[in-house]
UniProtKB/TrEMBL annotation:
SUPFAM superfamilies: Ctag/Cox11 (SSF110111). InterPro entries: CtaG/Cox11_dom_sf, Cyt_c_oxidase_assmbl_CtaG. It is a single-pass type II membrane protein. Pfam families: CtaG_Cox11. One of its GO terms (molecular function) is copper ion binding. This is Cytochrome c oxidase assembly protein CtaG. The lineage of its organism: Bacteria, Pseudomonadati, Pseudomonadota, Betaproteobacteria, Burkholderiales. It is found in: Cell inner membrane. Exerts its effect at some terminal stage of cytochrome c oxidase synthesis, probably by being involved in the insertion of the copper B into subunit I. Belongs to the COX11/CtaG family. Keywords: Copper, Membrane, Signal-anchor, Transmembrane, Transmembrane helix.
Amino acid sequence: MKATWVQRLRLANRQLVFKLTVIVALMFGFGYALVPMYRAICEALGINVLSLAERKEQAKNTQVDKSRLITIEFDANSRGPWDFKPAISQLKVHPGEMATVMYTFRNRQDYAMAAQAIPSYAPMQASSHFNKLECFCFNEYTLAAGESKEWPVVFVVDPKLPKDVHTITLSYTFFEVPGKKLAGL
């Protein structure tokens, strides 16, 4: 009687190990398939979320409209005790041409802080034609007390920008993220 009980227990253990192995294999397969599924869903829904490398490649393939120049004005506003400014106040670009502008940040406080920048555009109709490929506004940053950093904005103005728009103002408001005062980094 004892042998049958042990045999049944071993059989049950083998069945459990087999079931768990199948579950682990299915979970691995599902995790592996998530990236192509995510891309397919985003493409089907029109949420074209591309990686930075794909965006840069896409930007290289755009047609540059040499027949006109657009003046891009850069503005920086800060809500707090830090310095925040663009390296240049304006730049002239051809639609379709990739450009980079650096912004400088300095935390004048005696403690670390988490902060983020929010962009805005003028005229409003230009916002859908101003394509940022890389931007500090995509992320929240932590700045140590007295720390200075420089971050780029890489952008392309879409050649489909209406012909009556000659100037675009890109304005950033840099603000401290509430509730995230960080102890001495």
